Amino acid sequence: MADLDFYDFYSDLSVEEKMIKETAKKFANEPELIAALRECNINETGFPRIYFRKMGALGFFGADLKGYDCAELNSVSYGLLMQELERRDSTLRSTASVQGGLVMHAIYKLGTADQKEKWLPSLRDGEAIGCFGLTESFGGSNPAGMRTRAKLEGNKYIIDGEKTWITNGGIADIGIVFAQTSKGPGGIRGFLVEKETPGFSTTFIRGKGSLRASIVSQLIFENCEIPKENLLPGTEIGLKSVLDCLNPARYGIAWGAIGAAMACYESALLESTENRKPFDEPIAGYQLIQEKLTWMVKEITKAQLLCFQLARLRDKGKVTNEQISLAKWNNVNIALEIAREARAILGADGITYEYPVWTHLANLESVRTYEGTEEIHILNVGRKITGISAIRNIRQ
Question: How far apart are CA 209 and CA 85, in angstroms?
Fold first, then answer.
């Protein structure tokens, strides 16, 4: 089935952009990978480490960074990469987003030259795995109120506290961990915490109904001592450095949601035109089904328009936090609605793992929440257009 491209966006892609898209699509359609993801989703087992290395070998990690032998993709290429990965499973895009969009971006933008040389090459290749420790159990929407503390004692920091819902936390070789060093948003600093550090432990979060192929963990710090040189110096601006780290991942999510929506639409279209014939003719010939399918095309096309323009602004250095918020909010929202409509079109088959729809529907419930809840993104846009912040107790 041809990709959904109702307004002929792909005809304007450069040779490199088309190549990146097709490379990611080919990888995501490998039978062994599809089987592994299906097994992971059914049994809630973690994404096999071998695929980190395969993704690294293809240049998927830190793909939009400059130098360090990264792919140096433009924003459209990077977006299409995220689209094709999530078109298969949110776990694939999430793996690339956390490894490259959060961890590598944080080290690249906020770290020292030595920190970059030590970690970026191994993270790029998928030989090392990273995690991003920000969210805490009391609520993720107010990072300024985090309770994890870091105290400087001589030539080391002592970290105490907990992080939760951390993708790859239980298997990570290196974690970017944020903690309060003093009161207020300006006191939030980032640290590199290596696995096996005394006082640092992890526990897997089990029983998830969503992102079942992802390893998600709690990070626990009990009198955890790390060298002073593991501080990320670029976090001296406090909370703003945290929020700046989130933008690359949020940008990738906006594109990834299009991929999830396309997969659900394609499954619904195929089933309704070829396989589902409860009244001896394809249900796609009925007006209600055509209304659902054309609505999906309309919303996916609007999401594509948002992302292609967002990419242009990003490459010009003109993109704003609020523009990324609007795209993430809109695209995840419509992807979730498309998944629900596709599930209805597939009937009972729609809740099985034989089709992609149920996995996308479940995963998008998490995507709607992480990297900023839908409500937080709405309020980001609201603050921009009114000049008044409705987000209480958060200074940005």
Answer: 20
Tell me if 370 sits within 8 A of 166, measured CB to CB.
no
Residues 186 and 292 placed together within one structural domain of the fold? no
- The residue out of 191, 216, 237 marking a domain boundary is 237
Please indicate, yes or no, whether residues 338 and 355 belong to a single structural domain of this protein.
Answer: yes
395 falls in which pLDDT band (50, 70, 90)? very low
Q: How is residue 264 written in tokens?
A: 């659900």
CB neighbour list of residue 94: distance below 8 Å, 6 or more residues apart: 167, 211, 214
Q: Give the whole-angstrom CA distance, residue 93 versus residue 103.
A: 14
Q: Are 305 and 331 part of one and the same domain? A: yes
Alpha helices, H only, 221-286: 239-270
Which residue in 38, 62, 32 sits closest to 50, CA to CA?
32
Q: Which of these three, 124, 152, 182, is where a domain ends?
A: 124
- pLDDT > 90? residue 189: yes
Q: Which residues are catalytic?
A: 371
| DSSP labels, 80-124 | HHHHHHHHH-HHHHHHHIIIIIIIIHHHHHHS-HHHHHHHHHHHH
Each residue's pLDDT tens digit, 93-147: 999 999 999 999 999 999 999 999 999 999 999 999 999 999 998 776 777 778 9
